[in-house]
Structures are given as structure tokens and as C-alpha cells.
Amino acid sequence: MPDSPTTGRLTGPAETAVLLAQGYPGSVWLTGQQPSRELRKGRYGPESITHPGKMLPTIARYAINTYTQPGDTVLDPMAGIGTTVVEAMHLDRHGIGVEYEDRWAKLAAVNIALAITNGATGTGQVYTGDSRHLPSLLPPQIRGTVALVVTSPPYGPSTHGHVRTPGARRGKVRKLHHRYGDRDNLAYRDHDTLAEGFTDILAGCRTVLRPGRHAAVTARPYRRHGELVDIPGMVVAAGQTAGLELVEECVALMAGVRNGLLVPRASFFQQKNVRDAIATGDPQWLSQHEDVLIFRRTH
């Protein structure tokens, strides 16, 4: 555990023991060595910052490098601004994304075009539609050809986003870029509806995956009205109900590692919420990682 809400010493063996507790292999991915803004600079359009739930590019990159080969097809059924697709293109894979909201699909198309301009050797395509009906959204020839799915469910309708203060950094702090746009987005649904919808999405992913290939889903718990919501547990249940086999549980660090210490990259509101909780006698810790749940289509 961290020594304070903002810094901590890595405890690799203990973390590994937790991952192995249920009999699944796991590893720690050093994916947080650079801030997200540095990872996206020149690689994604400037408007990409407005999406409330972007995947860290290095997480997608690590998964693609680990579970695929050049020329393979990689799919993200909840593509957002196209992070998975763009990283696949730069690694000489064929990236396919499906996004529900037109706004984010258009930004994904901008980022795909930028990847081509930047010399990416793979191809990229984004489709707009509801991934709960995934097989009907994609060309028939894609069925059974995808080598890897990389995706993440939404963590409710609002994220920590970014902060601004009026005039010379004085006045009340306000949020921006913290909400999805379409009220029909799964992000706005209750937990049970989100779980059902995500199960449908993973069932569609199973249909398009090649037998023996993988789906990597990033997730982390979050607090709603002070109560911890177990999104990783929901993902495990959804994947298994969809007919996928859970084969690995990994940790993707969002924090950097310097001389054995974590260098946190928490938002203003994450830090504030933890400090407020500690002040009221409810000890909490800043989240420094994403769970990465690796499923496999067995047949």
C-alpha cells in the first residue's frame, strides 16, 4: 500500500500475490512512465483532450505488442477517440473501432488520418453504431478474423476531467471535458444495465475473434456517492457470461516508477476526494493502476 495518498513504494511481490490469489497468472505493465499528454502530443489531434474516458496509449500499445503480430487485426468496440486503432496502426496492425457517439467517431477519424500522415504502416477504420449489436455493424468478412480486442467500459456518466479557474487562477474550480455527450450512452445507465450491455458487447467480440485469441479489458473500481463500485468484477462476470475464458489478471500502472517509488498522475479531483475522505476518517488511496483482464476465445 502507498505510504501516503500521493506517493508510495512499490511492493511487487505483494501485488503479484493478489493477482495469483485466484489461480490466474498476471504481470505488472509499466505503462505510466510518461503523462498522457506527452504520449498524445503530435500523435493525436488537440481536440482529443475533450473525451472524458481516454485509454492510456501505452496500455493499448503494450497489449497489442504482447498478444498480436504485424498484420493482425485489432478491434475496439468502444473506441472513443480511436486510441486502440491509432496504436495498432503505428505497430503495423489493422485497427478497427466502433463508437456510439458521432462526435467521438469523428475525432477518431481525425486521429486515424493523423496516424497516416505520421507514417503509420497499418490501416485504420472507425464505424459508428451501438456495439451491443457488434456483428451487424462490421463487414461479414471480419467475423472470426480479429486477433485481439482492446477496450474499456465507461465508469459512469462523469469522470474527473480537467479543471479551470477563472482569472489568474482565482475563484471556484470548475470541471470541463468530464461527461459523455449522448444521454443514451451506456455510461448513463444504471450498473445492472451497464453490465448487461457490456456482456452483449463481449458476446459480439467473441463472434469476431479468432479461436484462441484474446480480449484485453481495462477497468478499475470507482466511487458513486461514497460507495465503491466494482467495475473489474462486473467485467469478469460479463466476459464469462459472454463465453470467454478469463486467463490473466494484470496491472497496468498509470503512475510512473522512479527508484522504486510511484510517481502518481492523479487528477485534481481525485486528490481532493481522497484528502476529504481521510479528513472524515475514511482512509482511501489514490488509484495508481488499471486492472487488465485478459480473456480468450477457446473455440
UniProtKB/TrEMBL annotation:
Family: Belongs to the N(4)/N(6)-methyltransferase family.
GO molecular function: DNA binding; N-methyltransferase activity
Record flagged with keyword Endoplasmic reticulum: no
EC number: 2.1.1.-
Pfam families associated with the record: N6_N4_Mtase
One GO-annotated biological process of the protein: methylation
Keywords tagged on the record: Methyltransferase, Transferase
InterPro entries named in the record: DNA_methylase_N4/N6, RM_Methyltransferase, SAM-dependent_MTases_sf
Protein name: Methyltransferase
Metal-binding found in the keyword field: no
Enzyme class, UniProt record, top EC level: transferase
Domain of life: Bacteria
Domain spans labelled DNA methylase N-4/N-6: 25-108
